[in-house]
Amino acid sequence: MTSLEKQVRDFGLMWEGSQNFAQFAFNVSRLELAAPARLYMCPLFTARRRDSGLPPVGDLFRGVTHVQTKDGSLYATLELRSSSSDTRRLLGATALWQSDRVPCWEVWTVAPREVWNRAVLSAIGRTDGAVKPSLRQAQLASVLHEFEARLVKMSLKVKRFASRQWVAAKGEPRRVGARVDWKLMSLDEVLAEVREQGEWLSNMSFELMRLLDDGRRIPTGVHTGISRRGFIQANRPYSELFSELSLLLMRAGKDTIDRYSNRGRESVPKHAVRPIAIEYDYPIFREPSNCRDFIKAAKSVPRFGYSVIHSNPYIHLSLTDSSDGSSYEFFVFDEVRAIVVPQIRATPGSLDRLLSHVFAVFPEGNLAELSET
Amino acid sequence: MKDHRLRVLTNSVDNYFSTVVYTLAFAHEATRDQASDTMLPGASFRVGRRMSTSPSNTVSPSTEVTPDLLVQRTPTYGLVCEVKTNLPRYSDDEVVVKRWNDMDAQLRKYDDNLVGWLTDNEKVKTSDVVLLVDMINGVDAADFIAKTRKERVGRRAPVVVGTDRPQQGEMFVLLSRESGSLQDAALNEGLRRRRKIPFRVLELQLAKLKFCDSPPPNPLYTVQVLWDHLFPSMSNPGNFDALKRAYALKVTVKGLTRALQTYYGWVPRDRRDVGIPRSDWVKDALDFLVETGDAEAKSRAAYMVYYARTKRDAIEKFAKRMLDLEKARKKEAVARRYTPEDLFKPSA
Questions:
Q1: What mean pLDDT do residues B15-36 have?
Q2: C-alpha angle A364-A365-A367 in degrees, rounded to nearest 5
Q3: How high is the pLDDT of residue A158?
Q4: Is position A238 within any domain?
Q5: Which end of chain A has the smaller Cβ count within 10 Å, N or C?
């Protein structure tokens, strides 16, 4: 039995032996993980009511080989081939718990990164009614700050962060470029640097440091990461801290779901519009090239169709999500603000996909409710 | 590079939306107190309202007329407004002259003590007729009105208000009185000095209103609203037709008209309101979809729409199909004129 097979089996036994989530989280904290397996977690919000059963696992995950369910929880073993020509098996195991902390599902997975990406994340993205909210920049910073504040005799040291920015090569059209940095910095230093450079964070990995009485910081060997795509991961489960971080992530996800819910005009009293303003603190839309990039970002959202009604000097776009029939309009009438107007049908998942994609390739603004002036 | 005809068609969608913007901008200005820049208490407006003419109406006596916009500024004063922002520039061209004369006839219909105002007895003490034109036509419209003044003995001439959308910095609509004077001093002076209506103050209305009283110039506009917003909201896994690889949507002209009025237009509130968009605009759009192969007519008022969403720009897609259909129709007309026998006829 390989090390990965053993970890997957242990994870399954822990799920089987747990009566509830708290017991499961405690058991998992004792799990011994070794590369390439990591522990991943993301919150999953579904359109289903809490008591209406489990999400359709067959629809949800790719490569499912074995499924077990028990009251309010589900366990699945995942198996993938790394490529069609490769015969290596990639194993993983995932457990879904109906959370008693936040009204959502907690997806805990032990697997190599490839299995997490290909079998879990991509499948969630394709599943109607299942939403894994992305994190906006402010939420990312707030989750990490709050987590840092809860640490006792410990601190964070950022080991690696990936950010995006506009790159202008001479004679070529501007494009979005990624930057990965391995500087050892504190959380505040990283956030300040990213802000100063006009970048936006994609993900961040940090190590937990133990603070000694004499002020020295000792590495614990626990490496944890957070992604703006809305998940966390660690190389080692570490008692209640991972569970604590996952709670903060779930709360941020719930804020997003609450913000994006009840936007479709079919469900709003008197069919009123409930637009969201995307505000910038500098005149980003003064530059025609920025307007073009914004349109490009909106047009490139996967599985969205579009109509460009007006592109210059103001922007008026129509966007339709072909996966669930949600539709939106984008207006840019002034230099510091764009407006997204959910139309007849607009689901939280679709709105999250739309804004998450736009903010992955265009600088992120602050979201605000639009009210009558 | 887009084909010129294709560009004209795709621009027609934006031009129609601009007419909606201008209508709302004028309605916004006419319902506000210019001194405090707040909405006048009790002021309101309607798009597409039937007004009764008097027996002495010079064009249409004792009948109903529907101005593009009606503004009830105060309980005793109101405005009827004809929106002609897409009027061609005045010239000697027969077609152009006819359009301007038609517009004049339209304005004369409103030159009356109309009944149907938003007051208890549906009457007002004083009213004005406003012609809303593109700023570029402002002088021509003023001259045209002045030329026909003699024929308006005893009546007030329509007030010409020019509209523009200057393209710099923050977007706004510019309203300017080009000729005539309004009986409301504050509104009259405000428009004389020109008023800027930022898009920002209209954005909530623009987010939900897509139709005004004039019909769109072609079915493309209505098709875009149906295709981008209404049909997606009707699609669900239950009506997916695997063979056609599209959602099969059973629709009726009446149902779609009602839905468009509810979400993007004007629902009739009383017997005088006509309801915008009108059902014939929706029928035109559905007939166009039948021609493009995206729908089947089941009866005069019922259709089966096959809705499939692609990544392509919907406006461009349908504009191209419209041009293709036009080309095919021309070919067919030529083919009908010349039968195969014609080809073998000896030349005279």
A1: 95
A2: 120
A3: 94
A4: no
A5: N
**What long-range pairs does A265-271 form, CB within 8 A, spacing at least 24?**
A265/A342, A265/A343, A265/A344, A265/A346, A265/B208, A265/B263, A266/A344, A266/A345, A266/B233, A271/B208, A271/B262, A271/B263
Kindly state the average pLDDT of the residues A259-269. 93
Chain A to chain B Cβ contacts (< 8 Å): 108
Contact at CB, B263 and A271, closer than 8 angstroms: yes
Q: For A154-163, A363-372, B35-44, B316-325, which range has the lowest pLDDT when averaged over its residues?
A: A363-372
CA dist., res. A190 & res. A175, Å (int): 23
Q: Are residues A275 and A215 in the same domain?
A: no
Nearest CA distance, B20 vs chain A (angstrom): 14
Count the domains in chain A: 3
Q: How far is B54 from chain A (nearest CA, A)?
A: 37
- Among the listed ranges A233-242, A269-278, A353-362, B204-213, which one has the minimum average pLDDT value? A233-242
CATH code of the domain containing A273: 3.30.160.690
Joined together, the tokens standing for residue B200 give 């920002």
Q: What is the pLDDT of residue A50?
A: 45
Q: Is residue A78 part of a domain?
A: yes
A337 and A365 in a single domain? The answer is yes
Neighbours of B6 (CB within 10 A): 15
Q: Minimal Cα–Cα distance from A338 to chain B, Å?
A: 11
For chain A, give the mean pLDDT. Answer: 88
CB burial of B216-252 (b: ≥16 within 10 Å; e: otherwise) equals: bebbbbbbbbbbbbbbbbbbeeeeeeeeeebbbbebb
Same domain, A12 and A108: yes
B201 contact residues in A (CB cutoff 8 A) = 373
Facing B203 at nearest CB: one of A308, A318, A339: A339
Whether A237 maps to a domain, the answer reads no
Residues of B in contact with A325 (CB under 8 A): 232-236
Residue A99 and residue A178 in one domain:
no
- pTM attached to this predicted model: 0.90
Residue A248 is assigned to a structural domain of this protein: no
Whole-number pLDDT of residue A31: 85
Q: Is the ipTM of this complex over 0.95?
A: no
- Which of A173, A204, A228 lies at the terminal end of a domain, its last residue? A228
Pick from B198, B206, B232: which is nearest to A325 by CB? B232
Residue A65 belongs to what domain range?
Answer: 3-128
Burial of A214 (0-12, 13-18, 19+ CB in 10 A): exposed
Same domain, A124 and A148: no
Q: Which of A246-250, B199-203, B290-294 has the lowest mean pLDDT?
A: B199-203
Among B309, B310, B317, most A C-beta atoms within 10 A, so best to mutate, is B309
